Amino acid sequence: MLRVAITSNGPGETMGWVRPLARALYRREPQLDLHVFFSPCEYASGHEAEVIRQQFPSATAYAPSEYLRFAVSGSLDHVDALQYLGGDLGHAALLARKFHAPAFGYKFGARKGRSLFRRIYAVDQKNRQQLLDAGGAPEQVVEVGNLAIDGAFDDAQAPTELVPGGVVIMPGSRREEVANLVPFFLRAAVEMRRLAPELPIGFALAPFTTREALDAALATGGDPLIYGAQGRLRESDAGTEIEEQRTGQRFPVTRRGAAAMAKARLVLTIPGTKTIEAAALGAPYLALIPLNMPEKVVVNGPLTYLDRLPLVGVPLKRALISNFSRRFPLISQPNIDLGEMAAPEMRGTLMPAHVAHVTLDLLRDEARLDTMRQRFSTLYAHHRGAADRMAEALLGELRAAV
């Protein structure tokens, strides 16, 4: 029986990389013994391991605290391969040494003079060239495609509780996003409902977002600088709904985000994996980065903790985030890949009412919506099948070594 270990970290990597590859591996090796290790990460929701256990009952998933205990005192009698799918490369290196197993990378991992990985799977030709420029050998780097595209198309086949042809709101799944952006988007939804009563509006929440976190966010309405709305979750014959406290307006909730996006007229979201999935499904989107509280923004490396320094930390991080934001004219990956702002983006200090008005203006611009659909529908088409290509390549390596 083959045993494969995977290292990963946050919600985007879990949904967009781990799940599609795990599905492809299990299609080829139903008896596969899969172990998924989630390393500590400021980007994580804390519920990634639970989601993997629910969706792949035969897999063994380790939450960050369980991974750390395993790294110190755990053991497996053998591991055939270690596949990196997100997080700090140091954790992949640690486990590869512990298992005495060949390690395989994805998107990252080439270093001049030596490499942790026997093979590195590239997302696209540009990524492959980046890995070669960083020191990867031509025979070491194999282009397979973006795993997230397969994840989106797989999930889009599911039914959805949301009415087709409306606005789907995706507020993110990290702790700060749930605490502040759910109330922020709720107030924007109320304003849209006031201005366009017949427009279907619903929330697509990630499986990592717990009922407890939602209840807490809606009870407080988020930080005052977010200008969010208070509310509560309600269960009815129609399913789960978010009810805004002041107006009593209700908005349906789904956990099937890709299915909702595939049927939406517009997706209202923050940048990340969801913009890639929306584009792959041909769904127009509006991407937002509210910088109302820049000190709460998560960034790579130790700078993410800068706001915790007494007195100087918060103003210093605010300044750094603001300067960093100005350096990048595009913030969502499909726009970056196209080299232009095909989908509109908003960033800075944002007000929910203004976001509502921009959203409705965009919905009235059918020509722009059509242009987005046409450009996005072909942008990632060549990536379909990435999970199957990567699974076949990985298992081929392991079979050849037997």
Principal-axis shape: globular
State the helical fraction: 40-55%
CATH superfamily of the largest domain: Glycogen Phosphorylase B
CATH class of the largest domain: Alpha Beta
CATH topology assignment of the largest domain: Rossmann fold
Rg computed from alpha carbons, rounded to a whole number of angstroms: 21 Å
Compute the average pLDDT: 92
> What would you say the CATH architecture of the largest domain is?
3-Layer(aba) Sandwich
Work out the count of structural domains.
2
Question: What's the number of extended β-strand segments?
Answer: 17
Q: How far apart are the termini?
A: 12 Å
In this structure, how is the largest beta sheet organized? 8 strands, mixed
Quick overview of this protein structure:
The protein is of the alpha/beta class and 402 residues long. Helix content is 43%, strand content 18%.
Structure, explained:
- This protein has 402 residues and is an alpha/beta fold.
- The protein folds into two domains: 3-145 and 385-401, Rossmann fold (3-Layer(aba) Sandwich); 160-382, Rossmann fold (3-Layer(aba) Sandwich).
- It contains 15 helices and 17 strands.
- The chain is globular, with a radius of gyration of 21 Å.
